[in-house]
Description:
It is globular and about 50 Å long. It is built from five helices and no strands. The protein has helices at 18-28, 32-47, 56-71, 76-88, 103-114. The relative contact order is 0.19. α2 packs across α3 (56-71), α2 (32-47) packs antiparallel against α5 and α3 (56-71) packs antiparallel against α4 (76-88). The termini are far apart. By secondary structure, the protein is mainly alpha-helical.
Amino acid sequence: MRDRSRATTALALPPVSDADEALQRARTAMTAETRTLMEDIGRALCAIEPSLVMREVTRFAYAGRAAADVHGLGTPRAVAATRLLLRHMPRVDWPEPPAPLTRAEYGMRLIQTAGR
């Protein structure tokens, strides 16, 4: 019987060029639409039940709803806008905050991150 090697093969990745890096940065850059949506979400969090604890699931819900309101529910543009929003909205659960973060505090962070 023939012995077969079970070693994994390492594939060499192609070198990343400056153009590839620039394209990736352009795809993930914060757009004016993203800034506007983040600011709107921040204002909503400050206005609606501001003393409640902010949770990660709330971050997902607000990002999805804001994108759906602009682009329609489940459309490819809404999905892309949601991903871009979530990329720029700071996470709530990591790193662990020393004390629970309120919705108002998180809303203020979003408004600051939007930079307007």
